[in-house]
Amino acid sequence: MALNVIMMGPPGAGKGTQAERFANERGLPKISTGDILREAIRERNPTALAAQARMDRGELVDDETIIAIVKERLLRADAQNGFVLDGFPRTVAQARALDELMGRLESGPLIVVDVAVPEHELVRRLANRKICEGCGTNAVPTDAAACGQCGGQLVQRADDDHGVVLERLRIYQQSTRPVLEYYKQRPTFRVVNGAQPPERVALDLNAMIDDAAAARR
């Protein structure tokens, strides 16, 4: 049975880092709407450029655009044995569209993990976060002099400005929290404490996903 994981959590929770780590350990593709959009932006795709302007203001990209991007990606051959979704779904409409697609693919249940972190810690993390101008990788550690992936210059993300951070968290509460309500009654829903050290989060996350997968066999 395919291992299909959704990594949820507010901006700054570390879900992208954990999703990347888990995907690499399990041999699964990590599918991030942010990565897909950045690739399209580099190619000067007009739809993606319009989406970038919205993201820079701390707004969410419209459902229709995001759903189409993710559907195309999930139909590729490397996702047939499972995947790790990072940054999708962010609205109930997106979650319903994903359920519809999974029903057609008949590829097994969705395991949903919410990486929970207090808001004050999220604000602190986001204020200190930097991103590579070259490849778009988040800087780890955050005080690094250059990107560990390509050596590019590290800059603050446009959407990590203090005012934009607060707006992103407000939008998350308004638009994405209902998605957790949509999923939380499912037997495959789990919550991990994301305020712990990353190694501890990874251990807990692996155990929770294995537990959820075993419960559905």
* Large-scale geometry: globular
Distance between the termini: 8 Å
CATH top level class name: Alpha Beta
Unreliable residue stretches: none
Tell me what you see in this structure.
Helix content is about 50%, strand content about 15%. With about 220 residues, the chain is an alpha/beta fold. It has one domain: P-loop containing nucleotide triphosphate hydrolases (Rossmann fold, 3-Layer(aba) Sandwich). The strands form two sheets. A five-stranded parallel beta sheet has the order 2-3-1-4-7, with helices on both faces. The chain has a two-stranded antiparallel sheet with strand order 5-6. It is globular and about 45 Å long. The mean pLDDT is about 85.
In short:
The protein is an alpha/beta fold. The protein contains eight helices and seven strands; from the N terminus they run βαβαααβαβαββαβα.
Helix/strand layout:
Elements: E1 3-8, H1 15-26, E2 30-32, H2 33-42, H3 46-56, H4 63-74, E3 82-86, H5 92-105, E4 110-116, H6 119-128, E5 131-132, E6 154-155, H7 162-183, E7 189-193, H8 198-215
Parallel strand pairs: 1-3, 1-4, 2-3, 4-7
Antiparallel strand pairs: 5-6
Helix pairs in contact: 2-3, 4-5, 6-7
Keywords:
217 residues; Rossmann fold; two-stranded antiparallel ribbon
